[in-house]
Structures are given as C-alpha cells and as structure tokens.
Specification:
This protein is of the alpha/beta class and about 475 residues long. It has helices spanning about 5-15, 30-40, 55-65, 80-95, 130-145, 160-175, 185-195, 205-215, 235-245, 370-380, 415-425, 450-460, and strands at about 20, 25-30, 50, 70-75, 110-115, 125-130, 150-155, 175-180, 200-205, 225-230, 250-260, 260-270, 285-290, 295-300, 310-315, 325, 335, 340, 345-350, 350-360, 365, 370, 385-395, 400-410, 435-440, 465-470.
Amino acid sequence: MPFLDRLNRWADERPDEPAVVCGTERLSWSELRAQASALAASGEATVVLRQGNGTDFAVRWAAGVAEERECAVLDPSWPEEVAAPVQERCADRLPEHSASARLRDGDPASAFLIGLTSGTTALPKGFRRSRASWQRSFAASAEHFGLAPQDRVLAPGPLSASLNLYALSECLHAGATFVTLPRFDVAAARAAISGHGVTRLVLVPTMLRVLAERGPAGGADASGVSTIVCAGQKLDPGTLAAARRWAPRAMIWEYYGAAELGFVAARCHPAGEAVPEAASDAGTAVGTAFPGVELAVLDDDGAPLPEGTAGTVAVRSELVCDGYLWGDDGRAFGRLGGMATVRDRGVLRDGRLHVLGRAAEMINSGGHNVYPHEVEEALAVVPGVAGVVVVGLPDGARGQRIVAGILPTRHGGPDRLRLRAGLEGRLAPAKRPQQYLELQELPLTAAGKLSRSLLRDWILEGDPRARPLG
C-alpha cells in the first residue's frame, strides 16, 4: 500500500504527534506504527475489515495491506444476508490465513484493495485496485487540493465508505492528522473542529449542510477551516450558501468521481465567490478534468461527441480500478471507445463537465449509490405489499430522495410506520425511502413492463394514481 513507507517516515520524524483521532481515542504516529507492525507480524487474519470507526480501524487497515497483502473493507451496517455472501466471495479471492508481514509498501503493480459498491441487485459489486493507482492519486489529490503535513482533517462519515477510506489513507501518506467520529453527530463534529484545530473537512454535502445549519445554538462558526472537500453528489446552492456563512474563509472544493474511476473532475469555489442560482446552468457543472485525467463525452458507439451534446461520461487515466471481480451486469463500470465509464450521462461546455444523471437509474441519495431494484426487493416481502416501484427524485439536500410507490393487496396495505419497520434488518438505513406513495395501479409500459419513468411523470404531474401514503 503506498502509505506505509510514508507512515514509517512520519513515525521517525514526528513520533509523538497525533496521527489518528476518533472521539476520545488517539494514536500518535509511533503508536500507530507499533500497533500495526505487531498485528501484521502476528499473522492474524486481516483480509476482511468490517467494523465501525475508531483508531483500531486505522491499525487493522494498515496491517491489512502490508507488503503484498490485500484487504476487503465491508460496511458494518449491512444486514447479515448482504454481508455474508460478500464475505464468501472475498474469501474465494483472498488467502485463508494472513502470512506474517512487515509494515512496508508492496509492489506498486500488485492489488491491495477489494472495493465494494452497490449493484443492480442487493449484492454489492466487488472491484480490485492496484497500489499504483492510489499512489498516483495521492500525489495528484494532495497537490490539487493543497493537503500538507500540518493539516488536521476531519472526515466524520463511516470509514468503510470509499470517500473516507481514501481520506484516511491520503492523510497517512501526506503526514496530516486524521480526525473522525465514532458516528456522525453535529455537536461532536463541531467540538472536534474546535478541539483539534481542524483545518480541512472531507464529507458529503448532506453532512456539510447539517453542520452548517443545525449546529447547537450559539455554536462557533468554522472560521478556522481553510478547505472543504465535498463529493458523493452535486453540491447544491443551498448547501454552498450555508457553508459560506459557516466557514467564510474556506476554499470549497467539489469533485465528481466514482470508486471505480477515482477522480474525474473538480471545481473550486473560492471564499467570497457568489453562490449560483439553483436553476442556473452553472449549477450542474462539476468542474474541469482532474490532473492527469482525459475526459470525454461519448455516444453509444464510443465516438466523442461535440461540446454541448449529452452522452456517456468516460475517462482515460491511471487512477481507474482494475475491474470487477463479481457483479458485472454491464450497467455500471466498463469500457466504451477505449475509455472507462460508470455509465453516467453528462455534457461538456467550455471544457467543464456537467453531470446530468445516472444512465442505469441508480439513485444517489446523501452520497450513497442506491439501486431501485434492491429497495423494491426489500419492500416486496413486507405484508400487505402487492407491488412496488422505486424511483429517485431531485432533492436539494440529498441530491436525490428515494420514493417508493406501493400497490396494496386487496386486504389493505401497510402504512408508513409498518413499511419502515419491515425494512429493519433488510436494508441499510441509507437505502430506505424518504417518501412513500400509495398506487392505484402499477405504472406499466405497453408491453406490460414496470416503468419507473411513468411513475416519475405521475408524481410530477400530481396524477391521482400515485397519492401520498397515510
């Protein structure tokens, strides 16, 4: 892994300075090295990491990728029926026992990570990354976003998410102090910002918005924060305005990318910049191509489209993953015209990329990629549900909100409370609908297939066939 040699350097040069902080837990650089070295040398299995935030996560992550080791990082909030098959697939591709290893980087060409992302079924897809891809990415992102050893970086989200796992690893590479929380909490995040002298935030826009708008009464602003990095969804004007008031001196970056592609495009909002109107064309722009990334919009045959014409967003870069290990349904990561894509739709205008949406109807809600089919499967088993259709609709705070249309059985359907209760243990909280509608009939095409686009039309037009569920 490309941060272990650098971790050893920081432990030699700054042994007593904080490396990782989580709540009341703290590890200095020398302590992190000592604990990770001992774990790597012990031979204890570290191939699957499935745990919540804490300093031990950093220890196990560092040990799990020592030398030629490879590690899979699972979301601890997944229900067991999702986690178990993922672990089985990881076990098929990883050694049963971890050989003793030294805490140092392995061959750049070797794989170090089995990353996981949602698929069109309830089973997350698995993809593999080489050490070299993140090594190049660290160098590019630290320079582009201005990360330095003196920075103290707060990433308050789950470390199992790719945004935060990368932020942790980037800090270990750059020598910056990484700060996180046992779980996201507005008051705890604000206390961490002031208590640890945080200079940078890495988070999704929904977290930024609640931090900026719903802090404790009389809470201090974030005037000491110099940089905010947002990803996972488009930074909407309301969130940007709130962040401007709360962190008036911060340079706010938003970037568009994917776990499979790495960085694709980035946009900077300097302090004092006017916030764009929600309906303006600039509001869809996610920035220009990231350094070292060749960006294009292609037609269905893989040919480049002229500026101003919508098509499939594709990239050519050294930051792209090695490909899927399982779950490749042809609707997400793949190759088109010799370039890599996750099938997002977009358009280039004056060299800036505007992302228009997901081609495969994937919903991006609060920084989480959600496929309608997996939500539908979970709701279909709730008593009283005869049919279900799930769509994503625009939402200023979340990017998109998840809307479920429920067709009740002849004997009556469940109310919202019963639907929510029925999803407990079946679906991760981030993937549960924020809105429920009662359907008078299922939206069907002429061929009798379910039509999500038709349901969207019913909702937007106020069609009586889709009414709010009581």
